[in-house]
Design brief:
Chain B: It comes from Skermanella aerolata. The structure holds two protein chains of two kinds. By secondary structure, chain A is of the alpha+beta class. Chain A has four helices and eight strands, in the order βααββββββααβ. Chain B is an all-alpha fold. Chain B contains 16 helices and two strands. The chains are: A alpha+beta, B mainly alpha.
């Protein structure tokens, strides 16, 4: 069983963003008699910042665990997906810059059962390891992926379209060729 | 996506604040203020203005206060819905702009729809029928549209509309409806006049869009995956709609951010030629006469349109194609 946590640096950055956003969007409606045209977008934005703060706190408390049986997000609003239930893999890349640089990735996994959803952002320590293992399972199970997901996997050095090595085609989870399965703590 | 929204909003807020400060400083940069311009104008006509009255007006409008104080008063006013007072029109800015904003929005949206409806099929046709007679013809028309000055096209269309359809020269409606309340007749009159500014303003935008869509689509159509998809037996139409077109419209979508403000501000010259009761000519007048609150409100509105437009196009792009570009590089 390998455990992964979100490092404190990026989490602190997200807390700072949420606080700054709440101050900028929440204070003016409290201090000034704003026109409705200004107050409404600010209120919506303030709501988003509250959600973002809550999500950051949820990430702070979440531990991602991965072993030969599946991947598990332990914490508030957690989820778990046994490898044999893995049905959908999406790897998206987001950036706020016009040149699309300095962005982050989000790995979204869905299982066949209800509530079997796990979302992991690339700020997580050991994200590459998880992505590689997920790609291996997806390849083995023949799970279809979008063109965007395939490109994003390629960008982090994982070719999901190549023939799997050391992973019996069509089998479920278990035998990963390059990953160690002993108990290690990522953090 | 939540993280994306939050980070984008965190960029938008300081951007708007910075633009508001820069806008205010630029408006204040020319020597003097609106009252100085007014005095010069009166003196050139041989008239004089009482200095004490001048001082009274300066104090009333806060023109004697330091620039930073004026800025914060203006910014606070913008947030509370008080956009200041137009010296030129002797009315609150909101009242002055409100009359023309509706017609500006009508013209702008009609133009955007025109640009998209015309350029999208033509761009696809040109790319999928490269070097055909139709492609050459449409390319020629596109270049003609890019090269023709808008004001010239406006004059030509005005003449033909008058001679062939009897449409009155200039304006967005017949003179009888000018100050009349909205009615079915007034709406029909607006629609009768609307096509001229829409074609004039939209022509260059359409030509540019066609060229960009054609180039992007050609790039995609020449990629290996399209050849593979065709080799596997997919029909040309399915191959086109499935991937290349979706990739090719990315720059199309990212253009939304620039399209909105360009249409509002860039159509000023056409609006003057066509005597359109839109905001463009008013912005020009406000800048010329240093009607600072009116000009400032306009420029902030344009900035807001730009920032919101870019935000919308970024969100659309992030949803449609959340893909890394290898030249960019991701971080953790």
């Amino acid at each position: 069983m390998t455990r992964y946590r979100y490092p404190s640096g990026p989490l602190l950055g997200d807390y700072a963003r949420a606080t700054a956003g709440l101050v900028l969007t929440g204070l003016p409606p409290l201090l000034l008699p704003l026109s409705p045209w200004v107050a409404l977008p600010l209120a919506v934005a303030a709501g988003l910042f509250v959600l973002f703060a809550a999500r950051t706190a949820q990430r702070h408390m979440t531990v991602i665990e991965m072993d030969n049986t599946g991947i598990y997000a332990r914490g508030p609003l957690g989820g778990s997906i046994p490898w044999e239930h893995l049905a959908q893999v999406r790897l998206n890349y987001y950036s706020t810059r016009r040149d699309r640089g300095l962005g982050w990735m989000q790995l979204r996994l869905k299982g066949t059962g209800a509530g079997e959803t796990v979302r992991i952002e690339s700020t997580l320590d050991g994200f590459d390891e998880i992505a590689e293992r997920v790609a291996g399972v997806a390849r083995g199970k023949g799970i279809g992926m979008t063109d965007t997901t395939v490109s994003n996997f390629l960008a982090i050095g994982i070719d999901v379209e190549s023939e799997p090595t050391g992973f019996p085609h069509g089998s479920t989870a278990g035998s990963f060729s390059t990953r160690e399965t002993s108990t290690t703590e990522a953090q | 996506m939540l993280g994306f929204f939050v980070r984008r909003i965190m960029v938008m807020i300081p951007t708007l604040l910075a633009i508001s400060a820069i806008t205010f400083v630029i408006i204040q940069l020319p020597p003097g203020d609106y009252l100085t311009t007014l005095v010069t104008e009166l003196e050139s006509r041989g008239e004089a203005i009482d200095q004490s009255r001048l001082q009274f007006l300066r104090e009333t409008y806060g023109l004697d206060k330091p620039m930073i104080e004026q800025y914060f008063v203006w910014l606070g006013g913008m947030l509370t819905g008080d956009y200041g007072y137009s010296f030129e029109y002797n009315r609150p800015v909101a009242d002055v702009v409100g009359d023309r904003m509706l017609l500006t929005i009508v013209v702008s949206f009609a133009t955007i729809i025109f640009i998209w409806v015309v350029s999208f099929p033509i761009g696809i046709y040109s790319a999928t029928h490269q070097y055909s007679l139709g492609d050459y013809g449409l390319t020629f028309l596109g270049f003609l549209g890019l090269a023709t000055p808008n004001f010239l096209l406006a004059l030509v269309l005005l003449y033909f509309a008058n001679v062939m359809f009897g449409t009155s020269i200039g304006g967005l409606m017949d003179p009888v409806y000018m100050d009349a309340p909205w009615s079915w007749g007034k709406m029909v009159s607006v629609l009768e006049h609307l096509w001229i500014p829409v074609i004039v303003i939209g022509t260059s935008g359409t030509a540019g869009m066609i060229r960009r869509l054609r180039a992007n689509l050609l790039d995609e159509l020449h990629k290996q995956y399209v050849v593979t998809a065709r080799a596997k037996g997919l029909s040309p139409a399915r191959v086109l709609w499935k991937y290349p077109l979706r990739m090719a419209i990315n720059p199309f979508i990212s253009d939304i951010g620039n399209l909105l403000p360009q249409i509002v501000s860039g159509a000023a010259v056409v609006s003057i030629v066509l005597s359109l009761p839109t905001t463009g000519p008013m912005l020009l007048d406000a800048l010329r006469s240093q009607d600072m609150y009116l000009a400032g409100s306009f420029l902030m509105f344009l900035a807001l349109l730009t920032v919101v437009g870019v935000f919308l196009s970024d969100v659309a792009l992030a949803m449609l194609d959340p893909r890394i570009r290898l030249e960019g590089g991701a971080n953790r």
